[in-house]
Model the fold of this input.
Amino acid sequence: MIHPTFQFRNGSPVALERAIMGKMSQPPGSWGVRMKKVSVLVAGGGPVGLTLARDLARRGVDCMLVERNFTTTRHPKMDNTNVRSMELFGLAGLEPRLRAVAVPEDHPFDVSWVTRMTGHELKRFCYRSPLEDREHFRDRNDGSQPFSPAMRVSQAKIEPVLKAALEAEHNVDIRFGVAVVDVAEDADGVTVTLRDQTSGQTEQVRCLFLAGCDGGGSTVRAAVGIGVTGQHSIMPRFMTHFRTDDAEARALLQRWGVTWHYQSIHGTLIAQNDVDTWTLHTRYPANERDASEPGALIERFVGKAIPHEILIANPWSPHLLVAEAARTPRVFLAGDAAHQYIPTGGYGMNTGIGDAYTLGWQLAAVLAGFGGPALLRAYQDERHPIWQRNLEGSRRHNAVRVEIASLYEAGLEDNGDAGAAARAAAAERIAALGNAENESLGLELGYHYTGSPIVASEAGAKAPDDPYRYQPNTLPGARLPSVFLDDGTAVYAQLGRWFTCIAFRGTDTTKIEEAARCRVIPLTVLRFDDPHVREIYGADMLLVRPDQHVAWRGTGLAESSDAGAVLATALGW
Ligand SMILES: Cc1cc2nc3c(=O)[nH]c(=O)nc-3n(C[C@H](O)[C@H](O)[C@H](O)COP(=O)(O)OP(=O)(O)OC[C@H]3O[C@@H](n4cnc5c(N)ncnc54)[C@H](O)[C@@H]3O)c2cc1C
Done:
């Protein structure tokens, strides 16, 4: 049975947390000064922390975000915001702002293997531009396609957009230049010690929940004693982020047409804006003579020296690591604090955005009083298997790259028949190995919260689990497939900020509406009479969560007790 202790005021969640805060005891060792108290403290102002804090704020939760650096990152890092992240950002109203700083929408996502930029193109994998994708998604309209196309953009470009969006929210205290230095969790809350990076002064803040979004070296994760499993430092790499104004060099760097990634045994060249800025990631071990001389690395990849200005250059190393647990009772990990991957596939930030939009509504529902205790447990049950699944994807994709690199042999650039034959053989092999790292919709969209305590179970049902191919389905736990109605509008565009009940063919929604009203659960009801969408969704009624995953589906809810039970499960009671 649901016990909604706290009510909505003017349609928005009342701050339950304030009441709980009143009961919070002063922790031992506190300075006797009244500590600042917030419901949620988000540690880390990278893309994941910024996204989570904004989602919490928009759901009525008062929170604080602290970031040890004074500004958002200058490092390009991530360059592919995938389709699932774009769906999530889109539903949070951020898509136009993000796309405004991204590579133009009519530019393709092509990936091409070359010998050198002065040499030969071996094999090109052609991919549609976001503009073409949009048209394709509408034309297909069979549930197999995402709602939003992916986006080519660097992390250095999107973090300021996410920060500005957070700054527009009123109930969040944003502190850049402030680091988390210690965490003490007790039964009632968490005391977090912060250090001002300018003055060195420390301050303690008390929160009900702490979100560790503080990256791979997470202070939060270490402080609560959660270990990581997997492989550290898979292979040393060197990043050279550079720009060039030289027209000839720019033409050479897009020699075979607008291309997102040019790849060779010498590394990966990422076109960051298709104008003047590129990032080269080289794959040579650090002990090689020129492995950390940026100009030499560019020259080796390109095949000749080009005029360039280095923006940033540094060694780095990817890891394949997953945190042993997603949470303690009051501390939750998200983003790189919870998982670190090789960038092949682009699962790092994208998995973290999924974490943020899962944790956001779950914490907010608990704090608003209509979410029950199992909601907090669900984060571990739902996200941890996805972290591992994406780790395996990243590992597989990297193995393909390593195998392709092994095809590079002397003679690949030779003139004459022998060189041409060697290139043809390499091209054939590359085509056979494929480019699943940019094609695995099964990983991006097909993840499923099997075993979660807050999704309905269906006897004998088995979720599809193909990492490559996405098979649309509405089994509870699955992401709701995106479909356009016959009037041209998208179902996704109509989903509510909280729960949504979708009903077809006049199925009665009274009982679930009543149950939601009496339990103070925000519920949007969508009634459709569209046979095509009904067929894809495979049920007359579906309950969809705030993160667009299906919580329950059935033929209808005729009894109040059934409706109450469905909501009770979905809300973690
Ligand atoms: C070369 C490269 C390419 C990549 N490509 C992609 C891609 O295409 N797609 C993709 O999804 N991912 C990609 N990634 C991974 C992506 O960059 C990370 O997954 C992403 O940065 C994770 O975001 P985050 O917010 O969890 O962590 P971070 O971006 O690391 O942010 C954590 C923040 O916490 C702050 N912090 C740390 N400690 C503290 C503390 N004690 N107190 C306060 N603040 C603290 C840090 O300063 C930082 O700002 C790539 C990474 C690299 C290196």
About this structure: Confidence is low (pLDDT under 50) at residues 1-32. The first helix runs from residue 16 to 23. Residues 43-49, 66-69, 77-80, 155, 179-180, 213-215, 219, 281, 316, 335-336, 343, 346-350, 352 surround flavin-adenine dinucleotide (CB under 6 Å).
